[in-house]
């Protein structure tokens, strides 16, 4: 068997050599002449044609990424112009992604100066580094990477009536250009916009309340959401808003437009919730360019992200005490003592997102945020406070930088006794991330809850969550996910969305979410009975017909289970491969 494996591997390497050679030649020709060689499409297609499973596909992707990066880095040293690099990047984007000209061309125009800054200012830049960060989720590696670490003071985490209701809103993705009856099946990353044109067929018309296809949310749907929340829940004590206000139209963002739409959304939240405090955090879509959070040392106004931090420090101050200004201005994060004994820590985890290409310039604890987190938790521990952590990107997401997740996990393990819950967004999935003790795989030490998303992007029903929190340690004793069937709402323009409670955690899983031990049993049960994972998957997407009708096979369900229990990428990748090995054993 082992022999067979080597033979196959050897064959791949041999047969892989020629296409890679062609790729290199054709890309070199492109860069050197500035003109796209006529055989570029064919050569790239041919090389990916060999990809018959995910591992192979990843291997090819990493190789192509390294070839491209090497060529670009070297060519830039020889004076490659911005124009040629832009044209080159646009062509590759169109060929290698599913996106069309608008998305690729617009986004690359927006990010190109940042890319050049990174290449020009990182003297020891290697292709391996570029690919290992941007394509971490495809297992690209950089053997020369030097891990960094956070100083976490030694110590042992201690373990630790009125109920409080907390609303969790996330990933609203307001699209100011949304237009009912526009084209919902365009080639770009986002459709259903006035600029997408009128739908060619009736069945392609964007719906009045939103659309399951690649579309974000119209304002009328956002107004309805907030009306619903105020009407349905008479007692709301606070609101967690875990980021992503701006739409997916990444090819057409500007600082000014982002500020206008953020302002509009925050004003709407204030008008709707009045005296109730909202605790907002940043999403990856709030920056310009989208996803880009340059490190502190980048001070040129063209690239610096200070404009956003300063703007939000001001805009969020309607809900936050003034002592939060300093850290928001520094890195978009803050902490608030909500009442004696209870603290919220709000992070800007977008720095760890592997699409934040500034990580290539410098990935070491951006904005000193994790060190601050550890220090802040130590102080909270001394003061016997319990803590909720808000963070846009879920811990251990396959697209959150491995080293950042690893250090984050160390911090959680050290202080899990006072962290009574974590709240995330970003994936648009109503999901759980379970932290196991890295020294004892049976002990659950913490859980992160994802609010799902209000946006339907892509194929989900709109949603929000309401948590019941006990007053002493601020543990979550239950929560509900609310939603509506978008197809029904869109059937008749006179319809209003018909909101309903989709499920409550306690009723569905049979225990309270503050009972950490039971999460271990839940995962055990799920690994023996994939039907339970399938039910979890449907709830992840708020039980939309699209989600129900999507087939998730055993490998797909297994990966969902892996995602639930992995809080750093290395664990996820090991867990996902375990299934492959089992499958191979059975099939041989
Ligand atoms: C790149 O340049 C070529 C001309 O060399 C042009 O035909 C092509 O449209 C350009 N591509 C993009 C994406 O701008
Ligand atoms: C970084 O590179 C840009 C060119 O892209 C240059 O203008 C700038 O001065 C460089 N900054 C530093 C700090 O070296
Ligand atoms: C780009 O965004 C602005 C602001 O939202 C909008 O007015 C304009 O129509 C958009 N352009 C395109 C081509 O989508
Ligand atoms: C949502 O509504 C549509 C149209 O009324 C219906 O066909 C569909 O079955 C509903 N979806 C679910 C999951 O109930
Ligand atoms: C796991 O399954 C057992 C046996 O079917 C059941 O008694 C238990 O309640 C389940 N536990 C969880 C957390 O789902
Ligand atoms: C999800 O929708 C299906 C089809 O309409 C329905 O049978 C099922 O009960 C729904 N699940 C929940 C949790 O409401
Ligand atoms: Zn989002
Ligand atoms: Zn996001």
Verbal overview:
Zn(2+) 2 binds at residues 244, 284, 392, 426. Disulfide bonds join 93-104, 186-191, 192-215, 352-400, 552-556. Its cofactor is Zn(2+). It catalyses: a sphingomyelin + H2O = phosphocholine + an N-acylsphing-4-enine + H(+). Strand 5 (342-346), helix 11 (369-382) and strand 6 (386-390) form a beta-alpha-beta unit. The protein has 19 helices and 12 strands. With 588 residues, it is α/β, with parallel strands linked by helices. Helix content is 44%, strand content 13%. The strands form 2 sheets. Strands 3-2-1-10-11-12 form a 6-stranded mixed sheet. Strands 4-5-6-7-9-8 form a 6-stranded mixed sheet. The chain has 2 domains: 2-138, no CATH class; 163-178 and 216-577, Metallo-dependent phosphatases (Purple Acid Phosphatase, chain A, domain 2, 4-Layer Sandwich). It is globular and about 75 Å long. The structure holds 2-acetamido-2-deoxy-beta-D-glucopyranose (6 copies) and zinc ion (2 copies). One 2-acetamido-2-deoxy-beta-D-glucopyranose binds at residues 485, 487-488, 543, 545, 548.
